[in-house]
Design brief:
Distance between the termini of chain A: 114 Å
Low-confidence stretches of chain B: 211-215, 406-410
Number of domains of chain B: 2
Structural class of chain B: alpha/beta
Helix content of chain A: 40-55%
Strand content of chain B: 5-15%
CATH topology of the largest domain in chain A: Uracil-DNA Glycosylase, subunit E
Strand content of chain A: 5-15%
Mean pLDDT of chain A: 89
Radius of gyration of chain A: 38 Å
Helix content of chain B: 25-40%
Oligomer: heterodimer
Number of domains of chain A: 4
Shape of chain B: globular
CATH architecture of the largest domain in chain B: Alpha-Beta Barrel
Strand order of the largest sheet of chain A: 3-4-5-6-7
Number of helices of chain A: 19
Distance between the termini of chain B: 37 Å
Structural class of chain A: alpha/beta
Number of strands of chain A: 14
Radius of gyration of chain B: 24 Å
Order of helices and strands of chain B: HEEEHEHEHEHHEHEHHHEHHHEH
Low-confidence stretches of chain A: 40-45, 268-277
CATH class of the largest domain in chain A: Alpha Beta
Shape of chain A: elongated
Number of strands of chain B: 10
Largest interface: A-B, 91 and 95 residues
Largest sheet of chain B: 6 strands, parallel
Chain lengths: ~475, ~400
């Protein structure tokens, strides 16, 4: 039997050195006894001097695992790690087999250590005091579940970089002076300050944020185990909070509601949002406001907002799309998403000034279907189109465009009142009852969806031509007529 | 009015804040205070819960109302104008000092600030932004800040809030639009949705890659919302459908469900029966199934149905779909395995790794999961098949856990 004496409880370097030597000499795990011996004599003498070492490598994951396991308070940790190291020699994939008893055990220890580190980040409580030179310093007394103080100290240094602080624990103490972390041997609870003026405020907060109507003591203890309570200033309130919770709740429930203050009642408003009253809007602002109240069909239910048209109130050219998409629904403006970008590009190519066109949609709310987390566009029904024509007609009445371009078949149906196939009807000026001329062309989303690049380029060119054609139908503004004449 | 001392104000304004379930401090941009003048760090990913109250809820942030004076009259809220609750108001410096004092003692991860509406939505939002700005700019605070957005406030102020905060939230409050109109007459569901939409656009623009002048980080931890359960007649199916829509439309990080809880000085407009806390728990379980387990809402519960309170929604689904079981853990794909009651994401991923090297037997499964008994009727392993027990009539009874204690005290 080979006995290895490590220098300290966390002497991972010593373990690593010994383990490497033992394994090189093929000493099986059963033949090694691992002990911790404060005296730094070391096993070095006992293990070294054996036969020539054979080089071997272990996965980096093993070292990371062992690094954590070494900090566990379990007595078997060093033997367990050596057993794993030994077995890795013949079973290269051992760490992948999470259900292997040794791997399972080691991962369990490592997890407990990580958890202890996490709880240390959570449950350390600093108390403000002055150091011997009169400088502000924050001191905490903490008892970690495992030996994680050194490992966790950098977290506190990063967080409280501008503070002087010390964390005292029975195993080890760490100190930060805004520049460096220094470790010193373990200390005693009495070495830390006994109180802090702010703790009373913290307890006030703790008691107030607790909702007595939903007592779940088990859930609390699972996350904040009792072993930590004695160093948590707030924990002393727990028994009393629990004891009184039920009485407080039943008082709340049984108490009759009080009558609101007389003055308050007097000024209370009735329902602020009087429903949309059905009167036809006469300005674009009224369209915008009225749309938010619109209940003419069910599309408002799942949409963010009604999206009104945008552009000059006396535009000569009106472009009518199908309906707002995902982006338009969020932003509350028409044609600001991918299709809008295609439209902008095409308008520029056709020589149509974007800021002189009024852009809107046949349907004002985004109709969609939820697939997983995506909202997928759905074509509105004839009924929805009909319901929404009320708004489109209002916009047509107010803007009084000379030319209306229907983008796509749905818009065509809305503008012309009947199915208007794009391929057949494009490049024609269709007379509309309100004295405007209608033109039909593709919807920019259709261009985005075409898979074949050639077909896409062809359709885009036609789209630009159609926009040019529509613009040519627009009479020039009156000033310009005079000039041209 | 007599001046209240700071401790009394803290008691009033944290008591008033406790009905907001969210306390998460996760998802911020990784940062620390090294080399800087202030304090604070955010680790990215996981947040830290610094304490737990006896209600089982995590205390991660200093959750406060700037004031509980409020001009609104929302029936479910203890701070509504018509309630006779004690009122208080912090000034900006008081909140800043408390936050820093608590933070430096390691009590908290940061601040979650909300407020009653005083004077106007803009005025209130501006005060809240002032707290965040003072923390960030005057004190170089790098901890977590969560600001509640007042949907009626102007978009510029909402924008500013999102630039100082890690997370913003806007509460949808109630699962049904008409209940909101009835119980919270001053709130407007359209306004709430428009604000959520604006936040999503801001977050996405902030995260956009390849922009030369990247805009300042806009609420890097995203947005969340809260729905009160049991204050109106909405079914669980309706509630989850609403959540599903919100996740899809606004890319929310979380929807919090808050079982309507008795409040001091309740109003007569509210129902008398309070929902059991287990209902809230089941909603969270169903929400997780939708977000992490590949379930569609419609598979879990029909729109006009409620979740089973006795058993968890995944087990309920499995019992309705016994034809899919037992499942051979050695050959099934990940999506199928995630649907086995009792198997979590981590267990499944580990099993998939292990089975590349060996055939899974019960002993493996035992070590990789939280308990074999619940699983056995649904799985096949190298050394186990459940025989007829998957189809046995009393399976549901055997799988139903004894009623937990302390879940429902009403």
């Amino acid at each position: 039997m080979q006995t290895v004496r490590l220098a300290s409880e966390t002497d991972f370097a010593g373990w690593r050195e010994a383990a490497r030597a033992l394994r090189a000499r093929s000493v099986p795990p059963e033949a090694v006894l691992w002990t911790v011996d404060g005296a730094a004599d070391l096993f070095a003498a006992s293990v070294q001097g054996g036969e020539e070492s054979r080089a071997f490598s272990v996965p980096r994951e093993f070292l990371e695992l062992a690094d954590l396991v070494a900090l566990h308070r379990s007595d078997e940790r060093f033997a367990l790690m050596y057993r794993l190291l030994w077995r890795l020699g013949g079973e290269a994939d051992l760490l992948r087999i999470h259900s292997d008893p040794d791997v399972h055990k080691a991962r369990g220890l490592a997890k407990a250590v990580s958890l202890a580190a996490h709880k240390m980040k959570a449950f350390v409580r600093f108390r403000l005091t002055a150091d011997p030179h009169g400088e502000e310093t924050y001191v905490a007394w903490f008892e970690p579940a495992h030996r994680v103080t050194e490992m966790t100290a950098p977290f506190f240094a990063r967080r409280f970089s501008s503070m002087n602080f010390s964390i005292l624990t029975p195993d080890l103490c760490v100190h930060w002076d805004t520049q460096r972390l220094v470790a010193t041997p373990g200390a005693d609870a009495a070495d830390a300050p006994a109180e802090d003026a702010l703790e009373d405020f913290w307890r006030t907060y703790y008691a107030s944020i607790f909702n007595p109507a939903r007592l779940k003591v088990g859930a609390m203890q699972k996350e904040m185990p009792r072993r930590y309570w004695r160093n948590l200033p707030e924990a002393r309130l727990i028994p009393d909070l629990i004891a009184k919770a039920e009485a407080r709740t039943s008082t709340m429930v049984s108490q009759a509601p009080t009558v609101p203050d007389r003055v308050i009642r007097a000024v209370q408003r009735t329902n602020r949002d009087a429903l949309y009253d059905g009167l036809a809007p006469s300005t674009l602002e009224e369209v915008q406001a009225g749309l938010q109240m619109c209940r003419r069909c069910d599309l408002y239910r799942d949409a963010t907002q009604g999206v009104a048209g945008e552009g000059p109130a006396r535009a000569r050219l009106m472009l009518v799309g199908e309906q707002p998409g995902d982006h338009e629904d969020l932003a509350g403006r028409p044609f600001v998403g991918p299709a809008g970008q295609v439209l902008d590009r095409a308008l520029a190519a056709a020589g149509v000034p974007r800021d002189q066109a009024f852009v809107t949609n046949a349907v004002k709310h985004f109709k969609h279907d939820l697939r997983g987390k995506r909202r997928i566009h759905q074509t509105p029904t004839a009924g929805e189109l009909n319901a929404c024509r009320w708004w489109l007609d209002a916009e047509r009445r107010i803007v009084r465009p000379r030319v209306i371009v229907a983008l796509g078949a749905t818009a065509g149906l809305a503008v012309f009142g009947k199915a208007t196939p794009v391929a057949k009807a494009r490049q024609q000026a269709i007379q509309l009852p309100d004295q405007a001329k209608g033109v039909v062309t593709y919807h920019p989303s259709y261009l985005l969806r075409l898979p074949d690049p050639d077909a896409k380029a062809r359709a885009y060119a036609q789209f630009v031509d159609d926009l040019k054609f529509a613009w040519s139908l627009c009479p020039p503004p009156q000033g310009e007529v005079a000039r041209r004449a | 009015m007599a001046t209240l001392d700071l401790k009394r104000k803290l008691a009033i304004l944290s008591d008033a804040a406790k009905y907001d379930a969210s306390c998460a401090s996760s998802g911020g941009t990784k940062r620390d205070s090294l080399g800087g003048k202030g304090v604070g760090s955010v680790d990215g990913g996981m947040g830290i819960c610094h304490a737990y109250a006896p209600d089982g809820r995590c205390i991660s942030l200093l959750k406060l109302l700037l004031t509980n004076f409020c001009v609104y009259d929302c029936a479910y809220c203890v701070n509504r104008v018509s309630s006779n609750t004690e009122r208080a108001r912090f000034n900006v410096d008081e909140v800043v000092d408390l936050t820093l004092g608590f933070y430096k003692r390691n009590y908290i991860e940061g601040l979650f600030l909300s407020s009653g509406i005083i004077r106007s939505p803009d005025y209130t939002m501006e005060e809240m932004v002032r707290v965040a700005r003072t923390l960030r700019e005057t004190h170089h605070f790098r901890g977590y800040i969560h600001l509640k957005v007042i949907p009626e406030a102007s978009p510029e102020l909402v924008n500013q809030a999102a630039l100082y905060a890690d997370r913003v939230s806007i509460n949808i409050e109630l699962p049904r639009d008409d209940s909101l109109a009835r119980l919270a007459p001053e709130k407007d569901v359209g306004g709430i949705r428009r604000a959520m939409g604006a936040v999503r656009l801001g977050v996405e623009a902030g995260a956009e890659k390849g922009r030369r002048a990247r805009p300042a980080k806009f609420a890097p931890a995203g947005q969340s919302t809260q729905m009160i359960v049991g204050a109106d007649a909405a079914t669980d199916g309706e509630i989850l459908k609403r959540s599903e829509g919100l996740y899809g439309a606004y890319r929310l990080k979380r929807v919090y469900y808050s079982a309507f809880s008795p409040i001091p000085d309740a109003t007569a407009r509210l129902p008398l029966a309070r929902p059991p806390l287990v209902r809230e728990h089941r909603l969270y379980q169903a929400d997780w199934l939708m977000r992490f387990y590949g379930f569609e809402r419609a598979e879990i519960v029909a729109e006009n149905d409620d979740l089973d309170l006795e058993i968890d929604p995944k087990l309920a689904w499995a019992l309705r779909n016994r034809g899919d079981f037992p499942l051979d853990l050695n050959t099934a794909c990940r999506e199928q395995m995630l649907r086995v009651p009792g198997l979590g994401v981590r267990s499944v991923d580990r099993m998939i790794e292990v089975r590349r090297f060996k055939t899974l037997v019960l002993e493996d499964v035992r070590r990789l999961t939280r308990g074999l008994e619940k699983l056995k009727p649904f799985i096949v392993t190298g050394d186990w098949t459940p025989g007829a027990s998957t189809d046995s009539a009393d399976l549901r009874v055997r799988m139903t856990p004894p009623p937990p204690r302390q879940l429902d005290l009403f």
